[in-house]
């Protein structure tokens, strides 16, 4: 068994199984639908029939124990049995080209046996339509949980899906449950004429009324009491052709007819019914369960209602009818309760046989039944044999094994061929068993309809042979008359209407069951969603509480930052450091030009204190400085703390005096003369370059951290500032030296280039500066730290370190 199918079966309702074949027969009697397992062997049952045994044989269930699983719907065990049996793939169709409903109509009309599987290119689930003899049932396994849907809902879902479905042709065989061991037959002395004569004498009484006969027929035969069993007179072969005189011969056809008439109202004979029925036919199937088993046993015996061969007496036909077993008694058709000792040659010389009667043990005299009555009954049964088309239809769909084509033209031809083949096969001797079942059905109905006249004849003959008990005879006559009236008055349309109503009730009950299952699933899904919703609500509440805590913490931090920032936090203009510096220019101004200035200090006529008292540095911005903040700090505070502002202030307030007081006014002449010319300083300022390179004039803009200009805007000093903890590298030095040289070639006013670091200069930077100023570095006879571009053109290169807010010249050494 496929492991996935085993898992699905094990989800069904289950109960222990321990009775072997006996419990299998009990399951068959209750029309069980599901699966049974014993060890590793599995079997599937549908309406009490075994439709497949897998991973073993039926003998594995003899005396074994296991588990029974009741199927939720008849379609599922039939589908699993077909899938395990395996079949032949007949066709593949795309639903947009050939809908499932169209294929279903064709397969149903063609009495197909197999199933449709719609699973390829379908994401929602697997859909199946199962057929047996053209009758269909639907099931589907939907979603990741593979929830089972059945009936019209499953078929409608399949018909609405888009995908590719496969038509599988499967041959299903019904497995019979092995019967119990037959009971030992009572010992009989076939060779003792005296024993035969005694048996014949014991069988000389007449048959009682139908009710008593039916009651006797339901009691099992007791091997220890042979006198209770009816003894059959079996004439010898040579006696069958001899004319006989009036002698008491038991006519068991009358007894059998009465027995069947007595049980006809309760169990109408319907013959062997199909294995698969629609859900609408299940109630009718339960009512006909007994007679279906009778039909199965009838397949193994010869028809009892055929005409006798020429030269045989009616007693021979009586023996054949007597050999037919009933379901209630389970009598072996090969078993006989008496030998030919009861028959003797006739004493007369008449050439015409006298009316022959049969005798069954009772306390009445024999009844003489004429052959004309028996022959009339048999002729009526033969005439009615072809009137009921139910069994012919059953035979046709049971013999159908070919899948019809979806093409209507081919389906029509296939149907014609099938009908022709079925007609031919119905006329062949191989259909004898089915014909015998129809003959027995027709004979039973005929006997039921003629019960009244037969009983009347029996009573008349009984009266002429031997007087019967008046009270008992009256009761028997009344019972037989009532039985005949009931049987004769059966209203077939009324029964059909009753069955239709019962089928409608079954369908409504099935729909109600499906709705209840769906309601249960929806309730479970609702409860699950409610639990998930509750969990999510709890999680949301936790997250909201956490958000509230974070917001409170953020508010506190913002308050702290605002307190630290002060008024800058409310500034309307918020700037980045780069924006603030690019939009700022510093101007060198004096309180009074008549007092000490940089010019008078340059000439040695004023000291530093006097000049610095009169000198001030003013700033001009491209934005509202009073209502501006830089990174949460007031703009003015940011500006005064910046290294750019401190460098400009050092340049105009201290550098002149350091050069003059150290006696380096002459070696640093160009730079020394440029300081008094300073009018303004541009932060993050740009300088326009124009120079020749390879004979071509080049124009570009270059940027320096600070550009000191004169009143005309000509650059006097350019400076790059390194305010990080990292040292100034060789690359930074080379970059400044190259760009300053280009500025000098463009503007002769440039007097110096300065590199300021808040850390230190690495050896590479010092070496680069030394190479650039070679010939003047450490030379007392020439300009110090002078980058000479031509014989008369150059500028001073200075390396300055910033320590604790103060600036010190590292190169040149002053």
Please characterize this protein's 3D structure.
Residues 187-205, 255-267, 414-427 have a biased composition (Low complexity). Residues 444-467 have a biased composition (Polar residues). The chain is built from 27 helices and 23 strands. By secondary structure, the protein is an alpha+beta fold. The chain has 4 domains: 3-169, no CATH class; 202-221 and 232-466, no CATH class; 498-569; 577-811, no CATH class. The strands form 4 sheets. Strands 13, 14, 17, 18, 19, 20, 21, 22 and 23 form a 9-stranded mixed beta sheet that branches. A 6-stranded antiparallel beta sheet has the order 6-11-7-8-9-10, sandwiched between helices. A 5-stranded antiparallel beta sheet has the order 1-5-2-3-4, with helices on both faces. α7 packs across α8, α8 (252-264) crosses α15 and α16 packs antiparallel against α17 (470-488). The longest helix is centred in the middle third of the chain and has 74 residues, at 492-565. The radius of gyration is 60 Å and the shape is rod-shaped.
Name a few traits of the molecule.
9-stranded mixed β-sheet; 814 residues; 4 domains; alpha+beta; 27 helices; 6-stranded antiparallel β-sheet
Task: Give the uncertain stretches in residue-range form.
Answer: 187-280, 282-367, 386-391, 397-440, 442-489
Number of folding domains?
A: 4
Helix percent reads: 40-55%
Number of helices: 27
Strand-residue fraction?
A: 15-25%
Structural class: alpha+beta
- Provide mean pLDDT, rounded: 71
Q: How far apart lie the N and C ends?
A: 103 Å
Bulk shape: rod-shaped
Total number of beta strands: 23
Largest sheet: 9 strands, mixed
Radius of gyration: 60 Å
């Amino acid at each position: 068994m496929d492991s996935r199918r085993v898992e699905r079966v094990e989800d069904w309702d289950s109960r222990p199984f321990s009775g072997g074949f006996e419990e299998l027969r009990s399951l068959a009697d209750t029309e069980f639908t599901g699966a049974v397992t014993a060890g590793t062997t599995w079997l599937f049952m549908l309406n009490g029939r075994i439709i497949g045994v897998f991973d073993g044989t039926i003998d594995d269930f003899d005396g074994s124990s296991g588990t029974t699983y009741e199927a939720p719907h008849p379609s599922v065990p039939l589908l699993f049995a077909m899938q395990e049996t395996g079949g032949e793939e007949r066709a593949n169709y795309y639903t947009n080209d050939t809908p499932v409903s169209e294929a279903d109509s064709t397969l149903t009309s063609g009495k197909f046996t197999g199933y449709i599987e719609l699973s390829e290119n379908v994401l929602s689930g697997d859909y199946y339509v199962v057929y047996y003899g053209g009758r269909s049932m639907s099931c589907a396994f939907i979603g990741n949980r593979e929830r089972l849907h059945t009936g019209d809902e499953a078929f409608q879902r399949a018909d609405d899906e888009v995908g590719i479905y496969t038509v599988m042709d499967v041959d299903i065989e019904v497995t019979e449950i092995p019967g119990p061991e037959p009971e030992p037959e009572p010992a009989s002395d076939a060779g003792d004429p005296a024993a035969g004569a005694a048996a014949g004498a014991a069988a000389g009484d007449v048959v009682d009324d139908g009710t008593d006969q039916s009651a006797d027929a339901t009691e099992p035969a007791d091997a220890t009491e042979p006198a209770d069993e009816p003894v059959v007179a079996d004439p010898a072969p040579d006696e069958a052709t001899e004319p006989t005189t009036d002698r008491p011969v038991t006519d068991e056809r009358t007894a059998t007819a009465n027995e069947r008439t007595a049980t006809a109202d309760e169990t109408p004979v319907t013959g062997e019914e199909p294995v698969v029925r629609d859900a609408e036919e299940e109630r009718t199937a339960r009512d006909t369960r007994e007679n279906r088993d009778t039909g199965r046993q009838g397949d193994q015996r010869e028809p009892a209602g055929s005409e006798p061969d020429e030269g045989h007496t009616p007693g021979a036909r009586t023996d054949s009818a007597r050999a037919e077993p009933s379901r209630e008694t389970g009598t072996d058709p090969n078993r006989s309760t008496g030998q030919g000792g009861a028959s003797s040659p006739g004493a007369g010389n008449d050439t015409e046989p006298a009316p022959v009667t049969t005798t069954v043990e009772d306390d009445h005299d024999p009844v003489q039944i004429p052959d004309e009555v028996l022959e009339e009954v048999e002729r009526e049964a033969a005439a009615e044999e072809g009137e009921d088309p139910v069994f012919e239809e059953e035979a046709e769909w049971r013999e159908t094994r070919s899948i019809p084509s979806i093409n209507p033209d081919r389906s029509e031809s296939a149907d014609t061929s099938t009908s022709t083949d079925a007609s031919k096969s119905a006329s062949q001797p191989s259909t004898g068993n089915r014909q015998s079942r129809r003959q027995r059905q027709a004979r039973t109905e005929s006997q039921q309809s003629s019960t009244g006249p037969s009983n009347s004849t029996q009573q008349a003959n009984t009266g002429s042979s031997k007087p019967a008990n008046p009270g008992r005879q009256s009761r028997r006559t009344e019972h037989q008359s009532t039985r005949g009236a009931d049987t004769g008055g059966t209203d077939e349309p009324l029964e059909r209407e009753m069955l239709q109503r019962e089928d409608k009730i079954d369908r409504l009950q099935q729909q109600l069951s499906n709705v209840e299952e769906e309601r249960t699933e929806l309730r479970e899904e609702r409860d699950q969603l409610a639990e998930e919703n509750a969990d999510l609500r709890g999680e949301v509440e936790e997250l909201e509480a956490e958000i509230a805590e974070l917001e409170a913490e953020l508010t506190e931090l913002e308050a702290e930052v605002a307190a630290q920032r002060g008024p800058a936090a409310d500034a309307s203009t918020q700037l980045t450091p780069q924006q603030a510096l690019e939009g700022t220019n510093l101007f060198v101004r004096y309180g009074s030009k008549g007092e000490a200035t940089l010019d008078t200090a340059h000439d040695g006529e004023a000291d530093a204190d006097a000049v610095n008292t009169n000198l001030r540095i003013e700033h001009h911005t491209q934005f509202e400085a009073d209502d501006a903040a830089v990174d949460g700090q007031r703009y003015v505070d940011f500006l005064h703390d910046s290294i750019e502002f401190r460098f400009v202030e050092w340049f105009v307030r201290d550098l002149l005096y350091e050069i003059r007081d150290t006696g380096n006014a002459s070696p640093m002449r160009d730079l020394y003369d440029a300081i008094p010319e300073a009018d303004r300083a541009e932060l993050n300022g740009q300088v326009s370059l124009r120079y020749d390179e390879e004979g071509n004039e080049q124009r570009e803009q270059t940027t320096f951290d600070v550009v000191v200009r004169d009143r005309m805007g000509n650059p006097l000093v350019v400076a790059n500032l390194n305010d990080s903890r990292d040292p100034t590298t060789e690359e930074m030095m080379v970059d400044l030296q190259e760009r300053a040289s280009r500025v000098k070639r463009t503007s002769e006013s440039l007097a110096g280039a300065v590199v300021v670091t808040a850390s230190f200069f690495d050896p590479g930077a010092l070496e680069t500066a030394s190479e650039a100023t070679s010939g003047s570095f450490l030379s007392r006879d020439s300009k110090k730290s002078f980058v000479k571009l031509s014989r008369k053109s150059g500028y001073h290169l200075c390396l300055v370190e910033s320590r604790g807010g103060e600036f010190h010249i590292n190169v040149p050494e002053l």
